Fold each of these.
Amino acid sequence: MRPKTIAVIIVAAGKGERAAATGIPDPKQYRTIGGKPVLTRTIAAFLAVPEVTQIVTIIHPDHGDRYAALGLKDDRLLPPVVGGASRQASVLAGLKALAPARPDLVLIQDAARPFASARLIGDVIGALSQSEGALPTLPVTDTIKRSLDGTQVSTTEDRNQLFAAQTPQGFRFGQIFSAHMRAATVPRQFTDDAEIAEWAGLRVAMVAGERSNIKITHPDDFAHAERILTGDLAMETRIGTGFDVHSFEPGDHVWLGGVRIPYKFKLNGHSDSDVALHALTDAIYGAIGAGDIGVHFPPSDMQWKGAASTLFLKHAGELVAKASGRIVNLDVTIVCEGPKIAPHVPAMRTVIAETLGIASSRIAVKATTSEKLGFTGREEGIVAMASASIEVPRVD
């Protein structure tokens, strides 16, 4: 079976009047976010998908110079097409431009949605193997009221049956082209291409949309878009804490923070009993909701007898990376009467940094005594407490 040809229509024919800001004449699709025009980012999102074979952009008749100034160059980019007086007419112009090539599938994308991910685009394409149309949607979370006159509530809608539509919307080319041609002959304006498909009797599937796939419509949407680019909305910070204690037993050294320190005792435990790294490892696990050391490295498993605790710490760091997270900072406090910790702090920070692949400036190691009080004051053992601050992708 030959590979499918997949065309994309980018609808950029509007003047962007609702997003116009005082003193800024550029239509929204040509304004910049993060230093790049919105339209450039939208087109780039589809050029990044290898399955896409051609892209046509629909522009306003007055925007030829603006589009040319973008300087876009790619073999898959067709010359821009002038759009019509409505979005529906503009999409039809794009379909007519693609008709000689007769692609198998077509994706239709609003130029003002610059953040469609490769995953989202791929999901829409994938859904077309089973359905005649597909679009990303998000569940409606607000309570929706219906009003007949705009002043009084008539009824409350069942939001469990309501979904907000996004683009790209995908279709089998021949079917959506035929549906658009028919729709152009009736005295009705359709709000999106999925509505035309529904009206024409095509089956339209829903795939999971993305909160970051916003449509830039109003002036404050540009600030929203900038925050998405800088990660303020893409990531969230989580805090984990860890606590560990080990008693002393006869010996001549202790392991603390991955450093071997000569001492009159050693710490009792299944592994190397590095109380500082154990607390720190548990703090990282806690920040990403991954249990504790005992879950991943049970003391009943003899393979961890005498194991270096850097193995546990490295595993926690690998789980952060697997979750697409980032360690922001780590803080460890060691409570003991001895040994002296301060001379070894730089070495501890270095070991921790190298184990996790982060800068030592993100790591704090501190020590204190319990003023001769309690079991640490009686030199019966050592306590360590730790906290971990980690950024992970936001989950709504």
Note: Residues 236-393 form a domain with the 60s Ribosomal Protein L30; Chain: A; fold (CATH 3.30.1330.50).
Amino acid sequence: MDNDRRFSQLGGEENAQIDDDGRPKRKGTLVTASAHIITSVIGSGVLSLPWAIAQLGWIIGPVALILFALITLFASTLLADCYRSPDPITGRRNYIYMDVVKANLGGRNIQLSGIAQYINLIGFTVGYTITTSFSMAAIKRSYCFHRHGHSVGCHTSNNPFMITFGIIQIFISQIPNFHELSVLSLITTTVCFLHASIGLGLSIAKVIGGPHVQTSLIGAPIGEDMSRMDKIWSTFTALGNLAFAYAFSDVLIEIQDTLRSGPPENKVMKQASFTGISISTLFYILCGLVGYAALGNNAPGNLLAGFGFFEPFWLIDVANLCVIIHLVGAYQICCQPVFAFIESRSRQKWPNARLINKEYQINLPNNGHFRFTHFKIIWRTIYVILATLLAMSLPFFNDFVGLLGAASFWPLTVYFPIKMHIARKNIPKPSLRWFWMQTISAICLITSLAATIGSVGSIIKSLQTVKFFRSMS
């Protein structure tokens, strides 16, 4: 009798506390899954959209934004069906992206998917550290601008803010696992709507009452401030920024694994993906297009921390505070799968090591308790420290965001979901369905390569002038 049947036959109190795989009962719902997705998606990506639209223009920008949304939604529905295998409703659960690839493809695909996923998740935590420090610095600078005038530079080092954010994450990273993030995601989803709405409101106010700014059908023009090569780099980087704006496939399976049994998990996850992507796209279109209309071809790389707006300074501070709170949660959405992977592999390799396996418990008020191991505390602390140090050495917001988006979009959002769908459905190679799905994958590959080249080129250019560990806002 297999594992699923054995646990399905258990009765009474024991059965009420466990799922069909013997793990603690999952409690996730459509609302919490949608919140996880929105927390992952509407992060630092929304802040760079006016800049990205400014590089692409009124035609390519909105079209690219909608196409990225449609492709992500399509691929996420394919990936949601892979959570259980071989049957998407009654099959055995796959807990992480690598498990899904192992069950459906096998071979080297397992290692390749794992490398792509975890490198990108680590990259996201670095990117969120950079973004948060910019918002923290923006709060300090906005007060300085308000007090001394907009002509004063009010420059400040980002490093103390990165360190502060890192210290906060060291404590929050002790949350046991991904399943405990529902409340945090709901909070961060609320504040992400707030900061996006403030950015949108400021943009609308500037469009209505501010001076006319220059915009273009093809984006920022080639001229004295932008060479032809700079235009190519910035265009490709902008595509990477748009791809990054929809990056949640890295954690889709982990989110789906939080859903409670009842309605089939794949159906709930598809609904959550549609809800999350639809809401995110609406905000993206509004913030990106209205932000471009307000700020023009000179839109800053960061809508709120780049000071396209100076007043009312207190409202800008509130928006940046919301960004900070939001990215605290988004950081955890990305790093918890990394924590779980390393800790699981460590327990398997050293099952008798007390440092790794000896569990301690601290009783909390209201009959709660906190379980931990020494290894978990040490390893998670070291991870946050290293991510913070890397962020301090590579403070390139748009270039780094573009690189992350380019690196993750094709393999994790498009290639593996399509390849697994073809394998699961036994779609023959010469068929029309096989051809158009492979065409979508090929187009996305070319786009990702172009965005990667653009972001790397921009980073190389930035490295010529940057002083390591001396990032300034």
Note: The chain has one domain: 33-463.
Amino acid sequence: MSASHTSVASFNQQLLQFLESSPTAYHATGSLLAILLDAGFERLYEGDAWQLQPGKRYVLTRNDSSLIAFVYGAGNLTEQGIRMVGAHTDSPCLKVKPRPELLRMGYAQLGVEVYGGALLAPWFDRDLSMAGKVSFRNRSGKLQHALINVKKPVVTIPSLAIHLDRGVNDNRSINAQRDIVPLWLQLPEGEDKAPAFRQQLLQQLQQEYPEVDAEEILDYEISLYDTQPPAIVGQREQFIASARLDNLLSCFIGLQALLQADGSQSTLLICTDHEEVGSASCCGAKGPLLQNFLERLLPENETRTRVIEQSMMISADNAHGIHPNFPDRHDENHGPLLNRGPVIKINANQRYASTSDGSALFRLLCQQVDVPVQNFVARTDMGCGSTIGPVIASEVGVRTLDVGVPTFAMHSIRELAGTQDGWYLYRVMGAFYAYSGSLTSQLLGEQR
């Protein structure tokens, strides 16, 4: 693959389109699914009987928010294993509560709950819209579900003026229950009841799906998001600014690499929901999604164990780039720079699943495609985040390596990455998917 500017630019433009079309984990999964189906992947449903065949490509979803895509290679699975890449579809955000309507001083507001470890300050003074999944009863009395996306700005969280909080720039604390309450609308004088939120969702549903005979919204999972579109920024256009780079960037990279797989090896992409809140759900990495798939692919226990032994998972999740204003927050020898290549994430206490043999293989792949590579190790006196890597390693038993693209402002409403790094990781992922021969022999070397 040639790393020409045209190729990198095209890759990034497709990334921006994917980010903008994916305001929630549901929409991200829908975007991934649509691309895979358009590329010829056959959709599987977990409630059906399967007859998986070598040479074919498959995709399945769970909860509409998690996805597995699988290229069933021609090679012997017990000899070659499966090359797996994992990422997650969810991002920290604000989610609308079940009974959100609030009325204060003639203003209708919406109660929200913080999802995941969101950086709250950047949510103020933004033009926010809402999107998500609604469940409704149609006029025939049947339960149906649909994704909606309002797209236009409909709520905002205005800051308190500095004149009323003179110390705000010195020591600001944000109370998630009191301070992060979006402003929805102002009632006409004399009215004293806020509109029903579910009725507004019903109107939105009917607008997006005029053919659907919806009568009542029964429940919903609605998230707020910033309407400012993703962009290439910087004097020399070296950065990507967007919401949900953590971790839709990795989902997109894994997708693009999988689409280039030639079918000689068996390759798999899994993108799970709920990583930001611990992955403990039916569609999270702690759930049985991947294990269920492998059991149906390989029903016999001994064969499945042998295949897992030959397999490897690369868990892709963004890494903390060293911030030029706060270099002291990094270990002095392990501060990744933007546009300097993907990052191997290492933690002695297994908050990341990386081991030296997996890291060595990744470095070898980077050398083969002429991609620079970096390390991230947290300061010894600071805590360390985690990923789906250790979860899948412990649940499935597959050797796992944690890598990612360096970013700034992780968990902010708008994050920043380098324009080169996604392309770099895509090239390495492509080499990983195409790697021929036994991964175990490479990982274990002469010890074998």
Note: The chain is about 25% helix and 25% strand.
Amino acid sequence: MPLFDLPLDELRDYRSASAEPEDFDAFWSKTLQESREHDLDARFEPVDTGLTTVRTYDVTFAGFGGHPVKGWLTVPAGADAPLPLIVEYIGYGGGRGLPHEHLLWASTGRAHFVMDTRGQGSGWGGGGGTADPVGGAPAYPGFMTRGIDAPENYYYRRVFTDAVRAVEAARSHPLTDAARTVAIGGSQGGGITLAVGGLVPDLTAVAPDVPFLCDFPRATTLTDRHPYREIGLYLKTHRGRADEVRRTLSYFDGVHFAARGRAPALFSAALEDLTCPPSTVFAAFNAWAHEDKDIEVYEFNDHEGGGPYQEAAKARWLAGRL
């Protein structure tokens, strides 16, 4: 796929036209306050994985609405004191998978928590185990339009709340150091990382790779690739609801969370990425509020982005911050 978006020099200055709701902060403050009325009830059950270099815990905690959310916590086998904590979020359609799918970050001497994504985990990888017990209005198959009739009902309100609670759950374990906490993720996981970066004020760093859920006004009209295309197909049937949908999505746009980012950040973008177009990634990067930020650019890659090269870049970058 040849380059299809703005030239790189224009990307570095690009700003989103996404309109931030006046009650954005109030909406999220109320959402998190309501969630915290439920006991976090974080439980860590040791798992016999057969692996000798790490210890893994099967985690359950209360997310949005007190609903049970799963995760894995993996630490180096010999850990006996609090470790820097890396909280990871998963790409669209995936779940927490199996413990042996997540060995990189514990192998660097950190505690690693991976959150299951409610209702997902059936599209790729080793699967997931977290249901989404909330129903909703008619939606296009997928997750992008579930509850899109109103911000209060939207699917990602639940997911982003789960993600904040995941940080709180992971920090509650005695082998994690709450003062050294990093959020990471790619694609959908990158979009969730941006939300957490805007909602959790005391993170050490964030690293969103080719993040999804950014600059909805441009993304939904620039690419015809799923998952963004789900929104267009919904509106193709539900004619006349575009303004209502835009309003809902504005509460979940990574650009607005980025404007509240208070930690150093390492982004990545791929210039041939048709799933998360580079301009939408740069929209969030350029809005990121903390001055210590950088972005790795992969000129000839699609949505796979930097892949293992980006993992190596993150490891080097985090070494100076943890």
Note: The domain at 8-319 is CATH 3.40.50.1820 (Rossmann fold).
